[in-house]
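Please fill in the sequence for the structure shown.

STRUCTURE ENCODING:
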């Protein structure tokens, strides 16, 4: 099994030292990610591309490898190929016939060849020779140069022939780790998750900062979506998730700040706290999901007043985005369902929020705020590695039954639908249901109470967390299914 990975075009136009650094970083990232699937998968880099080579023994992992490649920043596209030593035109034709002959039956087709290096033939010669042979010696419906049913793609690179079986679009952007890190303020909604994704895609190691306004379920939801973003798009680099208890700050604002200035004041308090934590993490910028005029606090006048509270750079990737565009991106990256099912916790709601905050008025309102409350919130922050992000939510919870064989129990696959589709769970003799984890809390009470259920996810993190939560709610017919890893 062989994949050829092409660099994002912005990488290829960089100066030679920068291109070398970025391509080396991308290769290192892929090695880390693919090693988690199987340590026999090889990653080889040259000036033009990266080759990912997996032995036949791991052919069952092809979909998982493709998933890693499609979600890793820095990749323009990648192709699954059959690679051979380069022969003459007839040898190229014979190998192409073996790979594509049966697939052309009843289909129109054309042959497209790309060539790098010095050869005694041109790309057009390859297309005409191979295309003519396939047309005469297969059951194809004929050659069609415009909009054919199938395009047979060949790449000739110096002394190698690549017959492309499938071509996939990559994520684009820069390899993770090639840019300085940032701290993203996340609430779990559409905007903050898409903003975080965009910084990840640009190659920025993105830490997460969550201001807990008092809702345990909200905290659980935000941690889940942050974990999802990291695991799917950024797992090559360890990042931190920081939780700041902000309920006392909200109470102080509600009691002492003028109604119309509550929202602006809350944002300023958040930026103050974020700046302290960013400095501790040695991060020079914070990220928010704000967009111009989406809500009252996000007018240009208000944003200027909010930003004036800190010298830390504030990045807003969505600043000129429409809500429909943000939701569409959330759907594409798999966070739409998270946001739509995120528990709401409204901390500060002004009856008549100002859209043109005056600095002197803000400063006057803040004189009535007890800043020791903010200092206490920051000092009580909890900082965790992202892969350990849900440990504290399991504290003091009932012990969870973990089994390696489901027996007569029903297994519930709680993975995100995109994960479940790529690698569906099939167990001989065992009933398997699919309920995404963000719907589990509302769906579980409708299940047959006389049955025993085992929750399943790839890493066992989400399944154990949700089983613990259901046990805490009084259910006793739930556990976790964690199959033993195959040895090789």
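FILLED IN BY: designer on duty
SEQUENCE:
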């Amino acid at each position: 099994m062989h994949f050829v990975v092409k660099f994002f075009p912005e990488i290829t136009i960089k100066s030679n030292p920068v291109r070398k650094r970025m391509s080396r970083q991308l290769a290192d990232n892929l090695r880390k990610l693919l090693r988690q699937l199987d340590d026999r998968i090889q990653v080889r880099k040259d000036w033009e591309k990266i080759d990912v080579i997996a032995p036949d023994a791991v052919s069952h992992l092809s979909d998982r490898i493709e998933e890693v490649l499609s979600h890793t920043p820095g990749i323009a596209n990648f192709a699954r190929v059959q690679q051979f030593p380069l022969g003459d035109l007839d040898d190229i034709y014979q190998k192409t016939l073996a790979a594509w002959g049966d697939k052309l039956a009843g289909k129109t087709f054309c042959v497209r060849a790309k060539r790098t290096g010095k050869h005694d033939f041109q790309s057009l010669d390859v297309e005409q020779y191979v295309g003519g042979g396939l047309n005469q010696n297969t059951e194809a419906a004929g050659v069609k140069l415009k909009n054919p049913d199938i395009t047979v793609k060949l790449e000739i690179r110096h002394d190698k022939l690549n017959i492309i079986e499938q071509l996939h679009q990559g994520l684009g952007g820069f390899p993770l780790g090639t840019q300085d890190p940032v701290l993203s303020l996340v609430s779990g909604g559409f905007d903050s998750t898409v903003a975080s994704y965009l910084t990840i895609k640009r190659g920025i190691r993105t830490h997460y900062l969550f201001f807990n306004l008092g809702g345990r379920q909200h905290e659980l939801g935000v941690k889940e979506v942050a974990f999802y973003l990291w695991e799917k798009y950024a797992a090559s680099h360890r990042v931190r998730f920081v939780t700041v208890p902000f309920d006392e700050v909200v109470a102080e604002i509600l009691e002492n700040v003028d109604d119309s200035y509550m929202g602006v004041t809350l944002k300023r308090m958040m930026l103050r706290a974020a700046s302290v934590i960013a400095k501790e993490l040695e991060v020079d910028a914070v990220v928010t999901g704000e967009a111009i005029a989406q809500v009252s606090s996000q007018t240009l006048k208000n944003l200027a007043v909010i930003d004036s509270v800190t010298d830390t750079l504030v990045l807003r990737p969505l600043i000129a985005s429409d809500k429909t565009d943000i939701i569409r991106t959330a759907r594409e990256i798999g966070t739409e369902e998270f946001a739509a099912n995120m528990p709401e916790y409204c901390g500060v709601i002004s009856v008549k929020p100002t859209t043109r905050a005056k600095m002197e008025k803000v400063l006057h309102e803040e004189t009535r705020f007890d800043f020791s409350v903010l200092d206490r919130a920051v000092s009580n922050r909890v900082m965790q590695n992202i892969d350990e992000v849900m440990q504290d939510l399991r504290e003091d919870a009932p012990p969870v039954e973990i089994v390696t064989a489901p027996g007569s129990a029903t297994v519930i696959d709680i993975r995100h639908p995109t994960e479940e589709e790529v690698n569906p769970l099939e167990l001989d003799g065992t009933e398997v249901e699919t309920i995404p984890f963000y719907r589990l809390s509302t769906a579980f009470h409708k299940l047959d109470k006389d049955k025993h259920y085992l929750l399943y996810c790839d890493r066992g993190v989400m399944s154990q967390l949700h089983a613990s939560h259901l046990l805490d709610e009084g259910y006793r017919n739930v556990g976790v299914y964690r199959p033993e890893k195959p040895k090789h």
